[in-house]
Amino acid sequence: MKQLLTTDPEVYDLVKQEEKRQRDVLEMIPSENYTSGAVLETLGTVLNNKYSEGYPKKRYYQGNEVADAVETLAQERTKKLFGVPYVNVQPLSGSVMNLAVYFALLEPLKDKIMGLSLAFGGHLTHGQPQSATGKFFPSVLYTLGKDERIDFAALEELAMKEKPKIIVCGFTAYPRIIDFKRFAKIADKVGAYLMADISHIAGLVAGGVHPSPVDYAHIVTTTTHKTLRGPRGALIMVTQKGLNKNPDLGKLIDTAIIPGLQGGPHDNQTAAIAVALKEASTAKFKKYAQQIVLNAKKLAEELHKYDFKLISGGTDNHLLLVDLSNKQVNGAVAALALEAAGIVLNKNGVPFDKKPPFYPSGIRFGTPAITTRGLKERDMVKIARWMNAAIEEVKGFDFLTDDKAERKAMFDDYKKKIARNKQLKEIAKEVRDFCRKFPIPV
Ligand code: DSN
């Protein structure tokens, strides 16, 4: 980054600070990962300079021969990796990706989306009222059963009553295998489209450690930067089942992206997606996907020993959701304490949470990024020990009041105590020394 250093030392310094942060901590936010150096290099190429509104061979501007080749390559690699007949590789992010599907298939203010409630592990863009998806389209949100898993009987009853035009499965905080076949049965029964948003598990699907939705869903959406380990970006795939239901599906989606929601695609991002897809089709990536799950399961097993309450009792995928109520600490305080100890994750609501979203009962974390660094099961033993030690330092740091101002004052006080805590600093040092053995790709 010599040129950046000369032109803008301030930004150079910020990038270096972030590089150091990513190197020195255990990055355990389950939707984050470290892309390869090849992917990062591709993002910084001259492909960034081009405008390519349209699709290959149907562009509005001249000079798109290379852009056409890049986009076609990304399309072909997606089709091969996931076994789908059609894909749009242009969505700039996950939110636009899902919105485009709804605009392609539903009539605004009329046709209903049915998705898992955010409070139970669904995503904002699955019809939450706060999101554009819930403002433009009526939505009905399903919840989980008492066992903290999908309750298919309740789901079917709700779908029969509400008659959604699209049912969304695929979640943001759900640690279990998704039974796409059962979702498809319900969607078919009510005549709805089934959309599987596999953003979190795309790498696990590609690596063969989670079942694929491709035989069951009409549409499969995914971001490209989570377990798939690519650049930020997204894909909308149409399955054969989707084309059988509606042969125009691909065209409708393309039109919803441009001119519907976006202008020019980001060709550097598309090229980097192509690189990531190549990487994801290797035997090495399969091993990586397997190790993600092995690590998550081992971490769950170790955390049980410290009496952590795992939602649904454990995990089948890359992600763990823990209810900290028995530790007398809320997720917001716990996430701060863990960060002070060098373990980066996020506070999260848990199913049937009684606490407010800003100070929820739980934390969410996962193994994709630490597995990229090369951590194995034995390392999970250490991580569980560090996590427990950090939480012990803040045991009892919870709120006994519903008064917002009092709560904020207590939180600020806990923050100060966490910042001063010597034990947390000690763990952070141990974590930093440990992390040095596992370089990150830059
Ligand atoms: N922020 C992503 C996640 O963490 O699941 C989804 O948008």
Describe the secondary structure blueprint for this structure.
Blueprint lengths: L1 H6 L1 H16 L1 E2 L9 H7 L10 E2 L2 E2 L5 H18 L3 E3 L5 H12 L7 E4 L15 H5 L2 E4 L9 H11 L3 E4 L10 H11 L2 E5 L4 H5 L12 E5 L10 E5 L1 H6 L3 H13 L5 H14 L2 H23 L3 E2 L8 E5 L7 H10 L2 E2 L1 E3 L13 E5 L1 H5 L4 H17 L10 H17 L1 H14 L7
Helix pairs in contact: 3-12, 4-12, 5-11, 7-8, 13-16, 14-17, 14-18, 16-18
The structure holds D-serine.
Number of helices, where a helix is a run of at least 4 consecutive DSSP H or I residues: 18
Number of strands: 15
Q: At CATH's second level, what is the architecture of the largest domain?
A: 3-Layer(aba) Sandwich
Largest sheet: 7 strands, mixed
Structural class: alpha/beta
Give the mean pLDDT. Answer: 97
Low-pLDDT residue spans: none
Q: Tell me the helix content.
A: 40-55%
Relative strand content: 5-15%
Q: Give the cofactors and ligands.
A: D-serine
Can you put this structure into words, describing what you see?
With 442 residues, the chain is of the alpha/beta class. 50% of the residues are buried. It contains 18 helices and 15 strands. It has 2 domains: 42-280, Type I PLP-dependent aspartate aminotransferase-like (Major domain) (Aspartate Aminotransferase, domain 2, 3-Layer(aba) Sandwich); 286-435, Aspartate Aminotransferase, domain 1 (Alpha-Beta Complex). The chain binds D-serine. D-serine is lined by residues 31, 94, 123, 172.
